[in-house]
Design goal:
Elements (H helix, E strand, L loop, with lengths): L1 H16 L2 H9 L11 E3 L11 E7 L11 E7 L5 E3 L2 E2 L10 E2 L3 E7 L12 E9 L2 E9 L8
Length: about 150
């Protein structure tokens, strides 16, 4: 009777766990992506803090571009008063302001030269950059550090 109980236990364990080959294949399969994984990834700017200019990388996932769709992309820089103070340039051979541009999916970079919309230099401080892709919005912050000149 004891042998039957142990045999039944092993049999039940194999039925629950499945055969070892299936268990190994399941362990090697990549994990499924979460349903709420971001379709757009806004990464940290570099360098941060920055002095003269900074680069803002972002990625638009292929799922956004199904059926030939090219998303509308805007990247804006905000000051602490939540005012738009600059629009960075897309880092490509012919730089364009990143405002309502149609972009293909993939990796992109924008460059902000630390200038405001009126062409003057931005002051030292914290700024936020907001990326909008087809009404999906992400934000991050950065620090602009102007060098102090001595009066000696």
């Amino acid at each position: 009777m004891v042998r039957f109980a142990w045999t039944g236990w092993w049999l039940a364990l194999l039925m629950v766990a499945g055969p070892p080959a299936e268990a190994q294949q399941a362990a090697q399969a990549p994990p499924p992506q979460a349903a709420d994984s971001p379709l757009v990834e806004l990464r940290d700017n570099y360098p941060n803090p920055f002095y003269a200019s900074t680069t803002i990388p972002f990625t638009i996932r292929p799922e956004v571009c199904r059926d030939g769709h090219q998303p509308t992309v805007t990247l804006e820089i905000y000051n602490v008063l939540a005012q738009v103070v600059a629009v960075p340039l897309l880092a490509e051979q012919t730089p364009r302001r990143l405002q309502r541009l149609r972009l293909p999916c993939g990796d992109h970079e924008a460059v902000w030269d630390g200038k405001l919309l009126d062409g003057t230099d931005a002051t030292t401080g914290i700024y936020w950059y907001h990326l909008t892709v087809d009404r999906r919005r992400q934000a991050n912050n950065m620090i602009l550090q102007r060098r102090v000149t001595s009066s000696r």
